Amino acid sequence: MQNNNQSDTTHLTFPKSITGIQGLDVITNGGLPKNRPTLLLGNTGCGKTIMGMQFLVNGAVIFDEPGVFISFEEKTDELITNVSSLGYDLNKHIADNKLYLEYIKISQEEIQQTGRYDIEGLFVRLEQAINKINAKRLVLDSLDTLFYGFDPKVLRLEFKRLLSWLKEKEVTAIITGEIGNTFLTRHGVEEYVADCVIVLDNRSVNQVTTRRLRIAKYRGSVHGNNEYPFIIDENGITVLPLIGVSLKQESSSKRISSGLDQLDIMLDKKGFFVGSSILISGTAGTGKTSIAAAFAYNVCNMKQSCLFCAFEETPNQIIRNMKSAGLDLNPMIKSALLHFYYARPTLQNLELHFIAIKKMIKELKPSAIVLDPITNLMTEGPNSDTRSMLITFIDFLKSEQITVMFTAAITVGSIERNPSDEGISSMVDTWMLVQDIEKEATRTQTFCIMKSRGMAHSNEVKKFIISSNGIELQPILKKEN
Known about the structure:
The chain contains 17 helices and 22 strands. By secondary structure, the protein is α/β, with parallel strands linked by helices. The chain is elongated and about 90 Å long.
């Protein structure tokens, strides 16, 4: 007999408020808890105020939800000036009744003299501000200034009163606070009362600063459990969610030419699969960048956009050097089909480079991407972290059906000496190897396809020649062996 008393709660969706902050809504599985408070913790300079303001501005502009920002530290004119670097015209939003900013000064002398602090007066101020613009979102900045000097027992009760009051007003709120030394907060009680707790961190390793975000608690909702890197730039906060999208990938049967006819013949006479990942490895000076440039040139020649990410040579050097290989990239640049991203690997961590590249992908919508060389980005951090980041990035590109070509200083010998190098070659769809062979005081370069998933491919070793006429793959004569 069928049981008809099954609960319908499985069909309910946990109500959430979309933040509009790139990456954060993915990690939180839809946004912050709607009509509930979120505790946003972090050390100095990690971006708490910016995240709170971005949450309000996005709510007002994108989702037509007016917001209130109550500051206990910065005056309103200072706040308006500080966030203007993000392109936010707060005065306009205030004039349109989309935002309301107020500075409330907390008198520590009065608290010390009376020995108590009644937050009933704060409730009156908050209710007036909320009703003024019919606010749906609220930011209180910051908790430590508001409850400075409280006894921990009283703090827990007063903080719980504040959260209950905010829930009654049905506003989605962010309350910022400083991170503690032993506990998440300074007193170690606020995180137990809040429904959602997000922790921001600003750390420096090997003289490179990286910001991280972690969801420490989220009642009633699944969420990402790891630490996620984020950046703050002129567009605000962008979070890189290390959440795979492999289940959403569509495997294309379409082909894209390598730009080298002789290589296409080796690849089942058709070239690479669209949306696949390709690795060209070899020692320095073997011609990896030339193969990548030939591929980029061909993509642009088909009137498709290509993004070339250079981590070793400057774009001008690449353009100059490729002329010696019969490739003139200038027309492709002038036609706005070829774009360069150039940055020194040591300026920031691998994930921050990928955040910057993803932003360019969103703007340019390229058909193909070249990363030259990927091994230059792997000087910082454990190899496991690097591999996880690369896999996530490859999954993202595949979900967008973007063909990606990596170059790397990896050989069969280097894998034998350092087995962790195999991690890069194992994660790609096609792996091509360029090597130097020295015989009778003459260096000869060879080319072979180590693997190419899903297609028939040649296992023949070819002579690899770069000249002013271009790149050639020629058979190796027996007498040369």
